[in-house]
TrEMBL record:
<dbReference type="GO" id="GO:0005777">
    <property type="term" value="C:peroxisome"/>
</dbReference>
<dbReference type="GO" id="GO:0051750">
    <property type="term" value="F:delta(3,5)-delta(2,4)-dienoyl-CoA isomerase activity"/>
</dbReference>
<keyword id="KW-0576">Peroxisome</keyword>
<dbReference type="InterPro" id="IPR045002">
    <property type="entry name" value="Ech1-like"/>
</dbReference>
<dbReference type="GO" id="GO:0006635">
    <property type="term" value="P:fatty acid beta-oxidation"/>
</dbReference>
<keyword id="KW-0007">Acetylation</keyword>
<dbReference type="GO" id="GO:0005739">
    <property type="term" value="C:mitochondrion"/>
</dbReference>
<comment type="similarity">
    <text>Belongs to the enoyl-CoA hydratase/isomerase family.</text>
</comment>
<dbReference type="InterPro" id="IPR014748">
    <property type="entry name" value="Enoyl-CoA_hydra_C"/>
</dbReference>
<dbReference type="Pfam" id="PF00378">
    <property type="entry name" value="ECH_1"/>
</dbReference>
<keyword id="KW-0443">Lipid metabolism</keyword>
<keyword id="KW-0413">Isomerase</keyword>
<comment type="pathway">
    <text>Lipid metabolism; fatty acid beta-oxidation.</text>
</comment>
<protein>
    <recommendedName>
        <fullName>Delta(3,5)-Delta(2,4)-dienoyl-CoA isomerase, mitochondrial</fullName>
    </recommendedName>
</protein>
<comment type="function">
    <text>Isomerization of 3-trans,5-cis-dienoyl-CoA to 2-trans,4-trans-dienoyl-CoA.</text>
</comment>
<dbReference type="InterPro" id="IPR018376">
    <property type="entry name" value="Enoyl-CoA_hyd/isom_CS"/>
</dbReference>
<keyword id="KW-0276">Fatty acid metabolism</keyword>
Length: 311
């Protein structure tokens, strides 16, 4: 506490010397231009600064059709720009989280080869696969933390989807299946690339990927794929919303900087990541949020009692 007080005093005196005023900044950005109107996704405001995105094809087990692949990108690009949103909960409407790719599309449009010769056909297929990968990478690129709340089945492309999320909660009845091998293909939209970074057990990842075996919630929890298991969907969603609200109440400069640096560190060496961090914070340490947060800590207040400017 003494240290905090000293930091605050020093910060205040420097600001005083510079003649700066401690002020609340408001921005007119926020929801301007955000519509969140989609055919396959339902987006609602769960609480202050928290959005709830639901995969919304319950009659088809939230199978991911072409519209859903596209709308996920549009949705998370909007969220990335929405300064009224600080955290997201992603779940599935209806009986299960998702049955993976819409098999009607896989047999049709997805595998259709367009082009006059083999080079052009494969070129175009590569473009399609890269575009499909973006559907989940967009979640990782969005600086707002995304909590996946999974109930029932999470199959095929669904496992790639959750691997791009920052936190995973599930219900006791949840199960996970990297099913692509049983469909005759190698999973190509993120599960193979991200699972070993999450689980840290390559043998288990290989086993799941080669066999398509179902992994139940207890194993998913033990191996670290999910961080909490709840008895049912209702309690899981409540847990996810509570967590999202807590995250959303904190400094967006701190939280979003943390996500960006965690993702960077996952893909780079410690020394590269430390350099990136130093460069990041040489600007971000100049935020007013530090002053506000330290002051709140000194006054034994919580971050939810602090008003941070939107980001
Ligand atoms: C570039 C390539 C990129 C990505 C590739 C990804 C590959 C994958 O995702 S592989 C995984 C594919 N998915 C599956 O194999 C799952 C298939 N579905 C099921 O096994 C079951 O439906 C179930 C999820 C276990 C649920 O079973 P149940 O409760 O008995 O429901 P159903 O009666 O089977 O289904 C209800 C309704 O939903 C339709 N449906 C279910 N899954 C899909 C799907 N993946 N694609 C399209 N439609 C699906 C099913 O046909 C039913 O529709 P009706 O119109 O009512 O008949």
């Amino acid at each position: 506490m003494v240290l905090l007080r000293r930091v605050l005093q020093k910060h205040q005196s420097i600001r005083g010397l510079l003649g700066l005023q401690f002020r609340m900044m408001t921005s007119e950005a926020g929801h301007a231009g955000s519509s969140y109107t989609f055919k396959t996704l339902k987006v609602s405001q769960a609480s202050d600064k928290v959005l709830h995105v639901e995969l919304n094809r319950p009659e088809k087990m939230n199978a991911m059709n072409i519209a859903l692949w596209r709308e996920m990108v549009e949705c998370f690009n909007e969220i990335a720009e929405d300064s009224e949103c600080n955290a997201v909960v992603l779940s599935g409407a209806g009986k299960i989280f998702t049955a993976g790719i819409d098999l009607m599309d896989l047999g049709g449009e997805v595998l259709q080869l367009e082009g006059d010769d083999i080079a052009r056909k494969t070129w175009n297929l590569r473009k399609k696969i890269t575009k499909a990968q973006e559907t989940f990478t967009v979640i990782e690129k969005c600086s707002k933390p995304v909590i996946a709340a999974i109930h029932g089945a999470c199959i095929g492309a669904g496992t790639s989807l959750i691997s791009a999320c920052d936190i995973r909660y599930c219900t006791q009845d949840a199960w996970f299946q990297i099913k692509e091998v049983d469909m005759g293909l190698a999973a190509d939209v993120g599960a193979l690339q991200r699972f070993s970074k999450i689980i840290g057990n390559q043998s288990l990842v290989n086993e799941l990927s080669f066999t398509s075996r179902k992994m139940m919630s207890d194993e998913a929890s033990n191996c670290g794929l999910v961080s909490r298991v709840f008895p049912d969907k209702e309690s899981m969603l409540q847990g996810a919303f509570d967590l999202a609200s807590e995250i959303a109440s904190k400094s967006p400069v701190a939280v979003q900087g943390t996500k960006i640096n965690l993702v960077y560190a996952r893909d780079h060496s410690v020394s590269e990541s430390l350099q990136y961090m130093a460069t990041w914070n040489m600007s971000m340490l100049q935020t007013e949020d530090i002053m506000k947060s330290v002051q709140a800590a000194l006054e034994k207040k919580k971050t939810k009692d602090v008003t941070y400017s939107r980001l």
